[in-house]
Amino acid sequence: LWYLKDIVTNPLIEVGEYSYYSGYYGHQNFEDGCVRYLWGDAKSRALFNPIEQMGWHLDKLIIGNYVCIASGVVILMGGNHNHHSEWITV
């Protein structure tokens, strides 16, 4: 049992005061095991900063004050797609 506010380091994850994660079965920390497709882990921050370099608006995960996240849960984010809606993709 971990309070997320004490272990989350990603600047794009906002966590409430008493929310916690039970990663017993997953054997991974919250950011690596649960949150997918969100820029901001230590490795990606060292390589590229799209906020400063490109002016992108990135996804943000907001978790409330009293949230329990079970082991094995995966939160799929939008992937920070900054695709213009007027462009065509093939």
List the defining traits of the structure above.
two-stranded parallel sheet, 90 residues, alpha/beta, 7 strands, 3-stranded mixed β-sheet, 18% strand, elongated
Description:
This protein is an alpha/beta fold and 90 residues long. It has one domain. It is built from four helices and seven strands. The strands form three sheets. A three-stranded mixed sheet has the order 1-3-6.
Shape: elongated
What's the Cα radius of gyration? 15 Å
- Give the % helix: 10-25%
The major pleated sheet works out as: 3 strands, mixed
Distance between the termini: 45 Å
Q: Quote the beta fraction.
A: 15-25%
Uncertain residue segments: none
Number of E-state strands: 7
In N-to-C order, the SSE pattern is EHEEHEHHEEE
Major sheet: arrangement of strands? 1-3-6
Class per helix and strand makeup: alpha/beta
What is the mean pLDDT?
Answer: 81
Oligomer: single chain
Number of helices: 4
Give the domain tally. 1
GO molecular function, one term: transferase activity
Organism: Bacillus wiedmannii
Protein name: Type B chloramphenicol O-acetyltransferase
Keywords: Transferase
